[in-house]
Amino acid sequence: MEDVIAGRNSVGEALKSGRPLNKLLIAKGERQGSLRELAGIAKDKGILIQEVEPQRLAQLAPGQRHQGVVAMASPVEYAEVEDILAAAEAKGEAPLLVVLDELEDPHNLGAVLRSVDAAGAHGVIIPKRRSCPLSTTVAKTSAGAVEYVPVARVSNLAQTLDKLKKAGIWVAGCDMDGTENYFEASLKGPLALVIGGEGRGLGRLVKEHCDFLVRIPMQGHVNSLNASVACSLVLYEAVRQRLQSV
Q: pTM to 2 decimals?
């Protein structure tokens, strides 16, 4: 099944990243400005361009702001954990990964991918079951980051965490039961940051496989943050500590 990429920014990122696209669909009478530029890039790459009625674009990308352009592509391929670690090694950088424990909201996953790309982390690991897959909604929310951030799907998250630890990577879980605030913990070495799913947080087994737990202090009336917001806070603290140690 083809993947639908909707919106000028998302389509532009797909074109720039070199992702194979089967065709570009542009609303009739809309070949101006950025759409004209996108069509030019697609033509140079030998990608089929079709002009269609705007209603056709709305049918292909229901509920999305297609902005007059839709690209049809094969679904994003998942990476292997080993490939993510190898990419970090090739850059001469200590691995910095995000592991998501049963995150089910595609908007949250897209936001996490955007933060991971912005922070320069090396990849994301998700479980195959009870987890949001890569989808059009994820791609749209990620603002194009899905084209650059490798995502690995694994059958057993706990076993994967054990493999990461054997590879010399510290596993830090973000949880309300954390023993220290995230900005007081040491996060500057090889690190896998584990974020729990909406509502339930980290599962018991996953929590037991973490080396340590950190918490985000809550001073208001609610006792938790959105998963993608929590991920961004702790991820950028790890980045800050790495920059200080250089």
A: 0.80
